[in-house]
Task: structure prediction
Amino acid sequence: MTSIKLFSSLTLSFCLASLLGCTEPETLSASPSAAAESKEANLLKSGLTERIRIEGQEVDYQSLEQRQAHYDVPGVSVAFMKNGQLAWTMQSGVKDLTSELAVDENTVFQAGSISKPAFAAVLMKYREDNPLDLDADVNTLLTSWQLPEHEWTGQDVVSLRRLLSHTAGTTVHGFPGYAAGEPVPNLQQVLEGAFPANTDAVVVDIQPGTQMRYSGGGTTLAQLTLQDVANEPLPSMSQRLLFKPLGMTRSGFEQPISTNLSNNMATPYDGDGAPIKGGAHTYATLAAAGMWSTPSDMLKLASGVRSAYLGQKTDWISQATAQEMLTNNTPSIEPPNVGIGFFINMDDNGEILGFGHGGADAGFMSQLYIELDTGNGYAIMTNGNNGRQLITELEIRLKEALKVGYSKAEVRKLVPISQKELSKYIGTYVVTKPVNVNVVLEKTANGFVLNALPYVENEEYFHEGGGRFFAKNGSSIRFEGDAESDGGLVKALVMDGSIRGVRMN
Result:
């Protein structure tokens, strides 16, 4: 439930809405001096606003500190790349609320699903030096486990290429990890959905190669396959093949966190600003969610792939390997598009504009993106479950102020509604899933204010027509039931497409 501060794993999203006229905060030219670069970083500390704006209304710009407080996100770290080189970093807030120690550029966060392109880079580097068929049936490569037969066994293969591009038809979107004190499964137990794994078995229920469906389960299967082939665990392989060659000195796949990184790690917090129970979760699924890193290190990965792709620097991986990683493996050019590990942002002709990945672990949210032609890009990491919303606002600011990225503010029209018409929606609704809470709606001039305490307080929703309402944070509400046959009142609301509340009065 978006407004009730639950989180989900996110990938790159592409906002197609055009930005209508409003008074914008300051922007800078594309090639600043060192002094201007410092000013660039400071631009992110002001001029932030929610991603949805209302046509004709003045935009309420706020500071980064205000938006962090709004979302209960203690700390944020940003790195910015220009022309393929790290230009500046910016940090705000604290890595831990108890100690009040400030986030710095070397503070490590869990990268969540940005682990996936990092793992893909390890696998592709391994393949440059060793025989490894990306298109072979993984069961011919696995020695410690076998993927169960499925409807398409013998017809369409589950291959490493398909697993790493989410086109293998495998299940299990993501993994919640394991709190301190909980038993941690091995990869085979995760894949089988056997105790102590806390997710379902990974199976194939879509014909391989026919569609893109995000699957952390597929990445986990790819990890086991590579470890079986190489006879080496991922943490040591990644240090040798990725982190050391690219100078990613503040990154690692060790779970729990390694000693050399734990001295400057961020503490994860939930959507209400409370520490995640059990602390930073342990992820058995290293390739899918288990990397620790910094924004600067993640940009080194993206820049390394880009430079090799363009043939500018190929001492880590070859140009052919990088181009293979950034070749769209999904059945169409309609987004989302995925290469090997990375999501790819393409234009209408299928030309690559940029690439990256998002990440979400318990208490951590991240985003990585780099433009192919300019070499300009950014990485953002936060230690709060509401970090996704904050990251989106920072991305919008980066696009408006520095012309980098893909995120734009969405502008919507407010549709007038009479108070009589509005009255049939106003009341109290009971939500039982994913949490038990009363949702109370109170009239405003053009919609209502929603309270779902303690999760949501005074969130304003605006009428967009047809009995549908939106909030500036992107949440949406529609209503169900025949008002004419029920005393002029609707019977239920549906929030964000899936959260249903039944009217009490």
Q: What stands out?
A: The first strand starts at residue 52 and ends at 54. Residues 336 and 343 are 7 Å apart (CA to CA). The first helix runs from residue 34 to 43. Confidence is low (pLDDT under 50) at residues 1-24, 28-32.
